[in-house]
Fold this protein.
Amino acid sequence: MKTKITLLSILCFITINIFAQEIKDTKIVDKGFYVIIYSEFYKNPLRAEYKLYKPYHVVDRKGMSFKVEKGLKTATNKDFEGNSFDKGHCAPFEDFSNDEEKARATFSYANYAVQHFQLNRGAWRLLE
């Protein structure tokens, strides 16, 4: 019985410490037109908030690539080399494609979700 209580105590302690680390490493990235709640612990956004609308599309995404956000621990392009994962936008490029500055700002590592390439280039692309 004592062993079970000790294991349970250790498990609770580990869970609480991980949760505390997750909260400590959570940052808010506010671009003015979208806001990301970002976890440096997971190197992934936890939540994206933006107003949904379909603008008149004027900006081409050609030549745009994801950039590291200054002052934030994020993934890098190197993390995606040689595997089957893509970077999917949380705040979609298309929703800001009427303004080049806003469109470029969606290519932030604070605004990506790791996705299998078939999902990102398939159903997710259609949703975006």
Notes: Strands lie at 26-30, 34-39, 44-50, 85-89, 112-116.
